[in-house]
Automatic annotation (TrEMBL):
Membrane topology annotation: Multi-pass membrane protein
PANTHER family (UniProt xref): UPF0187 PROTEIN YNEE, VOLTAGE-DEPENDENT ANION CHANNEL-FORMING PROTEIN YNEE
Source species of the chain: Acinetobacter baumannii (strain 1295743)
Protein name as it appears in the record: Bestrophin, RFP-TM, chloride channel family protein
Highest rank taxon of the organism: Bacteria
Transmembrane segments: 21-39, 188-216
Length: 272
């Protein structure tokens, strides 16, 4: 904006004539840049939306578990539901590369300190948790609590959760190529920097206004795509994983008749 104002003012009072760059060149570059920015935004939004759909499947599958597990004994049902809660927590922590609060996880999942320690020793805590769920279902099948048909249906829920984790891992571990993002970002800045030299002689004092609008649009689209590229973070436009995990905890613990934690509240209009 400052450069635009200087160039526009100098051109307006005829103090100095800057070398005029043909506007047709910027027109062509602007069209190409718009196409590539649109492509990047589409790719980043697809990643964000796919991540949201995967977590929607996780929430739906947790509800399926709640309904299907009512055929189990109360003790086994509680263990399976608690493992589902643990799975949601450790998957969120895996995607955000963080460690859950041990005290809070023990309170919501009912895990013992020993079980929690063993969980943290696993390289893939979500898959380990799913293996515990499957073991409980196998024991129920062996002890005659459920038939093989019901076992197959409940085991499908385990497979669905595994697919959710695989999809989330793919998004988290496969970012948009860095070279592509850097090239596009630098091209946007170069375009916005050089634009006043083409518009200064035509617009004069109005140069900063038009350049500011164009720069805001291009730089804003570039920044927005960069922010939603990694949907599992803690920025304003990332997925509110904490809130979704808490909703699972509230629903499942409520069906077990256990105390439920309070919902996650937004802080500074940002729901994590």
């Amino acid at each position: 904006m400052l450069i635009s104002a200087i160039i526009g003012g100098v051109e307006y009072i005829n103090l100095y004539r800057f070398p005029e760059i043909p506007l047709v060149g910027f027109t062509l570059i602007g069209v190409v840049l718009s196409i590539f920015l649109g492509f990047k935004n589409t790719a980043c939004y697809d990643r964000w939306w796919e991540a949201r759909k995967l977590w929607g499947v996780l929430i739906a599958t947790s509800r399926h578990f709640d309904r299907d597990c009512r055929i189990l004994t109360q003790a086994r049902r509680e263990r399976v539901i608690q493992h589902v809660i643990v799975f949601a927590n450790v998957l969120r922590d895996r995607l955000r590369r963080q460690t859950a609060n041990p005290t809070e996880l023990i309170q919501t999942s009912g895990m013992s300190q020993q079980a929690l320690t063993q969980l943290y020793q696993q390289n893939n805590a979500p898959q380990y948790t799913l293996s515990l769920i499957q073991w409980e279902l196998l024991q129920a099948l062996k002890e005659g609590e459920i038939s093989d048909i019901i076992y197959a249906q409940m085991n499908k829920n385990v497979a669905d959760l595994s697919v959710v984790q695989t999809g989330c891992d793919r998004i988290a571990n496969t970012p948009i190529p860095f070279a592509y993002s850097v090239l596009l970002n630098r091209t946007v800045y170069f375009f916005c920097f050089m634009l006043p030299f083409s518009l200064g002689s035509l617009l004069g004092l109005a140069t900063p206004l038009l350049v500011g609008i164009l720069a805001y649009t291009f730089l804003g689209l570039d920044a927005l795509s960069t922010e939603i590229e990694e949907p599992f973070g803690t920025q304003s436009n990332d997925l509110p994983l904490d809130a979704m995990v808490r909703s699972i905890e509230i629903e499942l613990l409520g069906t077990l008749g256990k105390p439920t934690p309070p919902p996650i509240q937004a802080q500074d209009n940002n729901l994590l």
